[in-house]
Amino acid sequence: MKVGDLIELRGTMWSSYGREGEIGLLLETLIPPTGDDKETFSRVMWGDGEAKLYKTEHLEIISESR
């Protein structure tokens, strides 16, 4: 997953994400100092211009940037 990819927010069965199933643009991925991939977060911008952080493991690539 890299900056510029189109992604879909998948969440989990118990997810309370208000944008689950929507497609957005990946702006950045924040890797914690521990390097623990399970706790990686990514900033996504949505069609209405809102940008927020989500767990990277809850995102799925729809279209990769070049």
Describe this protein's structure.
By secondary structure, the protein is mainly β. The protein has one domain (6-63): SH3 type barrels. It has no helices and five strands.
Oligomer: single chain
Rough outline: globular
Cα-to-Cα separation, first versus last residue:
12 Å
Going by CATH, the architecture would be: Roll
Short overview:
This protein is 0% helix and 41% strand. It has 66 residues and is mostly beta strands.
Provide key terms for this protein:
66 residues, mainly beta, SH3 type barrels, globular
Topology at a glance:
Blueprint: E1 6-9, E2 23-30, E3 41-45, E4 51-55, E5 59-63
Antiparallel strand pairs: 1-2, 1-5, 2-3, 3-4
